[in-house]
Amino acid sequence: MRALSASELLSAWERGLSRTPAERALGLLGAACADESPEALAALSVGERDARLLTLREWTFGRQLTSLANCPGCGEQLEISHSTADLRAEPAGGREASAAASGPLTLQTGEYEVSFRLPNSLDLAALASGAQSASVADAAALLLESCLVEARREGEAVSAAELPPEIAEAIAGRMAEADPQADMELALNCPACGEGWLAPFDIESFFWGEIGAWARRVLVEVHVLASSYGWRESDILNMSAWRRQFYIDLIGA
Ligand SMILES: [Zn+2]
User: Fold this and answer.
1) Residue 33, SS3?
2) How far is the CA of 111 from the centre of ligand 1 (A)?
3) Rounded to an integer, what distance in angstroms lies between the CA atom of residue 24 and that of residue 243?
4) How far is the CA of 85 from the centre of ligand 1 (A)?
5) pTM of the model
6) How much distance in Å is there from the Cα of 233 to the middle of ligand 1?
7) How far is the CA of 205 from the centre of ligand 1 (A)?
8) Rounded Cα gap, residues 132 and 140, in angstroms
9) What is the DSSP letter of 83?
10) What's the 191 CA to ligand 1 centre distance in angstroms?
11) CA of 69 to the centre of ligand 1 (A)
12) What whole-number distance in Å separates Cα of residue 35 and Cα of residue 82?
């Protein structure tokens, strides 16, 4: 993976405008990981995908993040500054992590023996396409069905729907353990009332929002410089942000 130029980032943003969040994430990674096939990128676990998005975000906008949250205790809106390091999960226990990366996970409990893989971008896309009609329970069942490799009860094959709820929960637990970066959380504290809580953090939507704000700013810069100097868009995008701003300041002077 490598960092994207201003021109590449602008193109990825433009292509992603009419796409779903899962497709946008893959579009960004596809541009940054040109040596990997779209199929291989789509098959990355959600945690691996999000770890890469976090790295791409660091390379694009740096390690500092500012986000907004509402305190569940007093309702106060907080502006939180934190580092991307706060979002990095501890790697899953060594052998478990490499097992997750290389093949299916297994769970043996009571009379059940189950093998399954970690959810990936294709699973998320399938969930999103049925999102209007599906409840949370339906979504969990769909995810289990698509990630199940094989399930047996006392040696007899059973379907995902035939697994009891406690086995489904144990599988979900093992998935979360093996792919900890898939659930990013920020530990927050409210300075007004002292409440502490864990807030979920979605790197895809956060990064995409930042890219959109950046793209609109850069397009205005291109407009101002092209109008004033007659330079081509590609030449303006090839300049550093610092140099673009320098010329814009000169126009205003
Ligand atoms: Zn509060």
Assistant:
1) coil
2) 47
3) 29
4) 24
5) 0.89
6) 47
7) 25
8) 14
9) E
10) 7
11) 10
12) 32
Ligand 1 centroid from CA 112, angstroms: 45
Long-range contacts of 61-70 (CB under 8 A, 24+ apart): 61/210, 61/214, 65/206, 67/186, 67/201, 67/206, 69/186, 69/188, 69/199
- 86 C-alpha vs ligand 1 centroid, how far in Å? 21
Give me the residues paired with residue 18 across strands.
none
Contact 184, 89 (CB under 8 A): yes
163: tokens are 């697994």
CA dist 193 to 68, 77, 158, Å? Answer: 17, 12, 51
- pLDDT tens per residue across all 253 residues of the chain: 999 999 999 999 999 999 999 999 999 999 999 999 999 999 999 999 999 999 999 999 999 999 999 999 999 999 999 999 999 987 665 544 544 456 799 999 989 999 999 999 999 888 877 765 667 778 888 999 999 999 999 999 999 999 999 999 999 999 999 999 999 999 999 999 999 999 999 999 999 999 999 999 999 999 999 999 999 999 999 999 999 999 999 998 6
Q: Which two tokens stand for residue 97?
A: 């992590």
**Distance from Cα 196 to the centre of ligand 1, integer Å:** 8
| Residue 195 structure tokens | 């409440």
For 137, residues 6+ apart whose C-beta sits below 8 A from its C-beta are none
